[in-house]
Design goal:
The complex is a heterodimer. Chain A is an alpha+beta fold. Chain A has a domain of 172 residues: Oxidoreductase, molybdopterin-binding domain (Sulfite Oxidase, Chain A, domain 2). In chain A, 23% of the residues lie in helices and 23% in strands. In chain A, strand 9 and strand 10 form a beta hairpin. Chain A starts with 19 loop residues before the first helix and ends in a 19-residue tail after the last strand. By secondary structure, chain B is mainly α. Chain B has a single domain, classed as Transmembrane di-heme cytochromes, Chain C (Fumarate Reductase Cytochrome B subunit, Up-down Bundle), CATH 1.20.950. Chain B is built from ten helices and four strands, in the order E-H-E-E-H-H-H-H-H-H-H-H-E-H. In chain B, a hairpin with a 2-residue loop joins strand 2 and strand 3. In chain B, helix 5 packs across helix 6 and helix 6 packs antiparallel against helix 8. The chains are: A alpha+beta, B mainly alpha. Bound molecules: protoporphyrin IX containing FE. Protoporphyrin IX containing FE (HEM) binds next to helix 1, helix 6, helix 8 and helix 9 of chain B. Protoporphyrin IX containing FE binds next to helix 1, helix 6, helix 8 and helix 9 of chain B.
């Protein structure tokens, strides 16, 4: 694109076979284009290869593997101390109620149960009354939907970490935590898997209040999970069971092509 | 008679040609993601001038219902894009090539002259140099934009773990808009870039392939290959 230096004298026409530079240029150009064509074919072949791989839960397996790689990397860099920013409660509003999978008919807070189980132990059944007595948390944070929109919401509830620790749940006899939690609605129509580090994040709540009022039905009443280190899809509504396990739990959206980790 | 003049280092040519398809994959997968929530438009007093994007756009480019796929490609190819870009910036810093790209105090006015020159509104020849002022602005700008894409991308990729970065960019939705606007910027850059490449012609294009430009010399000058033929012969 640079203009040739205009002070150069005009070129007298030369027989092509005497112009060494021109010949050399021609060879280099040919070589460049041949290499370019080979590289482009290689790239095209790689692209075709990637797209024609068998799928692992909705996406070509190499992409699934890279999701796992990203998970290992960001999971390794993860820190419990890094918090989602909080906003003035005046900014809070109702988020779009996106998912309705697993919304049960009976959401009576008086009879709602949360069952927590772990390997080699009997499941324990809690009522909402069991949340009373744990320190209450109110936080105004931004819920981020995997679709790309977000909404500032004030959530009220109890830290999951506080609840689990106080109840002595989720740890092996030796004291180390089970690596995964599987959470689901009463009918198991919606279920998510969460890594223990994210579950123990200080902004991960068992939530029963939204914007200063009891949680509305379409937002998961009477009990949902709020987890600021994950996209909205992991903030399961109508939370009814929590199971600690060693294997990576099934996850509704991960089975439909999304990243299992979905960490923010 | 001509002689060969070295113009683009091999490393720069490799990074450049690797970048082009990577950026294409990033834009395509980015559009798959953007489709799931596409609020942006340019409007003046409520009159929409440009909508990002009308339905036919998604329809004809087959960009609908691909959020999960888009995220999978985006978060895979982001590594290649970022690494290639970092290597390019590293090489540019190390080799001194940044001096060819760095805009100076005179650059803005000279860039204006270049535009007038290109539009044939100004006759004076441009000052000699590898890149003219308009190119310096455009190239330095697009490299900064690349860095901006990676940074704003990180801000919306890990808005909790990297909350300081997200906040620095004005918040989650602001960072998403910045990330999107930069992409629009690439497309505009690309249109001008391609127009300029076509305008500058074959010899210039070839220099991005071979590294060398064919420069006419006076008849009486000794025919020579400059620099030595060895690097030229091994250049691709
Ligand atoms: C596939 C289409 C493309 C073609 C044919 C093309 C062609 C060229 C050519 C011929 C040059 C050398 C210009 C000169 O010497 O005056 C150049 C340089 C450059 N191009 Fe492109 N380009 C393409 C895509 C892109 C894209 C997508 C980007 C980035 C968004 C880009 C960024 C640049 C930059 C930054 C330079 C200067 C490189 C340096 O010297 O460090 N190009 N391109």
């Amino acid at each position: 694109m640079s203009t040739p230096n205009p002070s150069l004298p005009p070129v007298p026409p030369e027989p092509a076979d005497k112009d060494i530079a021109r010949q050399q240029m021609w060879r280099m150009t040919r070589r460049g284009f041949v290499r370019g064509a080979v590289a482009a074919s290689g790239g095209g072949l790689g692209w075709w290869w990637l797209q024609s791989r068998s799928t692992d839960n909705g996406i070509p397996w190499p992409l699934r593997a890279i999701h796992r790689l990203n998970e290992r990397l960001w999971g390794g860099a993860y820190s419990q101390g890094r918090l989602a920013p909080e906003f003035p409660p005046a900014m809070a509003a109702e988020p779009k109620p996106n998912g309705v999978y697993g919304w049960p008919d009976d959401t009576d807070p008086a009879t709602w149960t949360l069952t927590v189980s772990q390997p080699e132990a009997v499941g324990r059944v809690f009522r909402l009354a069991h949340l009373v007595g744990h320190p209450r948390v109110e936080m105004t944070t931004e819920l981020k939907c995997i679709e790309g929109w977000s909404q500032v919401v004030t959530w009220g509830g109890v830290r999951l970490a506080d609840f689990l620790t106080a109840q002595g749940l989720g740890q092996r006899p030796g004291g180390d935590w089970y690596p995964y939690l599987s959470l689901s609605t009463p009918d198991s129509k919606y279920y998510v898997g969460i890594d223990i580090a994210s579950a123990l994040h200080p902004q991960t709540l068992l939530c029963d209040r939204m914007n200063g009022e009891p949680l509305p039905g379409k937002h998961g009443a009477p009990l949902r999970l709020v987890i600021t280190v994950k996209y909205g899809i992991k903030n399961i509504k109508w939370l009814s069971t929590i199971r600690f396990q060693d294997e990576r739990p099934a996850d509704y959206w991960a089975e439909r092509g999304y990243d299992w980790y979905s960490g923010l | 008679m001509n002689h060969l003049e070295h113009k683009h280092d091999r490393a720069v040519r490799y990074f450049h040609w690797v970048n082009a398809p990577l950026l294409a994959v990033m834009i395509w997968s980015g559009l798959l993601i953007y489709w799931a929530y596409d609020p942006y438009e340019i409007a003046i007093r409520g009159i929409v001038l440009v909508k990002f994007f009308p339905d036919w756009f998604y329809h004809h480019l087959d960009l609908k219902f691909g959020l999960a796929t888009g995220m999978a490609y985006h978060f895979a190819f982001m590594w290649f894009f970022a690494v290639n870009g970092l290597l390019y910036i590293g090489y540019t810093a190390w080799s001194g090539h940044w001096r060819d790209l760095r805009p100076t105090r005179r650059t803005p006015i000279e860039a204006f002259h270049v535009v007038l020159h290109d539009l044939r509104l100004r006759k004076e020849p441009l000052p000699p140099g590898k890149f003219n002022a308009a190119q310096r602005l455009a190239y330095a700008g697009v490299v900064m934009m690349g860095a901006g894409s990676v940074i704003s991308g990180l801000a919306i990729y890990k808005p909790t773990q990297l909350a300081w970065l997200t906040t620095l960019l004005g918040g989650y939705q602001a960072a998403r808009l910045e990330h999107f606007a930069l992409t629009v910027g690439y497309v505009l850059f690309f249109i001008v870039h391609i127009a300029q490449v076509i305008r500058a012609g074959w010899n210039n294009f070839r220099s991005m392939v071979t590294g060398y430009e064919l420069i006419p010399v006076a008849q009486e000058a000794t025919p020579h290959v400059h620099p030595k033929p060895e690097p030229a012969a091994s250049a691709s």
